[in-house]
Amino acid sequence: METINYAAEIVKELHRSVERIAEEEAETLADFILQSNKVFVAGAGRSGLMGRAFAMRLMHTGINAYVVGETVTPGIDKHDVLIIGTGSGETKSLIPMVQKAKSLGASVVAITIDPESTIGRLADTVVELPGLPKDQASGGQATIQPMASLFEQTLLIFYDAVILRMMDKLGLDSDRMYGRHANLE
User: Fold this and answer.
1) What is the DSSP letter of 35?
2) Rg (the chain; Cα; Å)
3) 6-17: per-residue pLDDT in tens?
4) Would you list the DSSP string of 99-128?
5) What residue ranges do the domains of the chain occupy?
6) Selected residue with higher pLDDT from 48 and 147
7) pTM, to two decimals
8) Taking Cα atoms as reference points, which of 34, 27, 28, 125 lies closest to residue 79?
9) Which of the listed CATH numbers 3.40.50.10490, 3.40.50.450, 3.40.50.1000, 3.10.105.10 matches domain 3-131+145-172?
10) Could you give the CA distance from residue 15 to residue 1 in angstroms, rounded to a whole number?
C-alpha cells in the first residue's frame, strides 16, 4: 500500500488552482472595495469562514468592513458593496441577501465556481475561481480533497491576493496594518 503525502498533494492542487485565476480579478475586486463606503462580506459554511478572515484583513487596511449577520453590522446602501463567496452560486440562504442588497442599490460581487449560477447572474461583477462544487467533488477526479475544500482554500488565497493589491494601492505595510489589530486579546 502506497503512502500519500496529503499535505504535498493539497499544495499541488492549490498551485494548479491559483494559476487558473485571471490576474486582473484581484485588481477588479480591490477597485470595487476602494470605491465603496462600506464592504459587506458573506458566505455560508467554510466559504463564510474564509469571508470572515477577509473582512478582518479589510479592517486592518482601514476599510469599513462587516460580516453579514453579526450584531454590529450596519445597513447596506447604494454606496456599498456586498461580496459573496459561494462555490455553487446556488446557496439558498445567500440568494435573498443578494436580492435585498441589489434592491437597496448596493453593488454585488460574486466569487464563485459558476458565473452562470443564480448568484452569478444577479451579481454586478463575478470573479470565477476554479474548483468543483461540494456536490460534484469526489476523490480521484480534479481533487483528492473532500467536498469543496479546494474552492475554499483557493478563495482564501484569492482574498489574500486582493489584500496585497490593496496594500500596494494604499501604500500600506504590515507594520501600519498591525496598528489596527485587536489589542484586547
Assistant:
1) T
2) 17
3) 888 878 888 888
4) HHHHHTT-EEEEEES-TTSHHHHHSSEEEE
5) 3-131+145-172
6) 48
7) 0.88
8) 34
9) 3.40.50.10490
10) 27
Q: Give the CA distances from residue 30 to residues 36, 78, 113, 139, 163, in Å, rounded to whole numbers and listed in that order.
A: 10, 18, 19, 34, 8
Active-site residue list: 152
Task: Dump pLDDT digits (tens) for 75-117.
Answer: 999 999 999 999 989 999 999 999 999 999 999 999 999 999 9
Residue 136: pLDDT band with limits 50, 70, 90: low
How many Å apart are CA 97 and CA 181, to the nearest integer? 29
Q: Nearest Cα to 42, choosing from 79, 78, 96?
A: 96
**Residue 106 in grid coordinates:** 448596493
Backbone angles phi, psi at 92, to 5 degrees: -60, -35
Which ranges constitute the DSSP H helices of the chain? 6-19, 24-34, 45-60, 95-103, 118-122, 149-170, 174-178
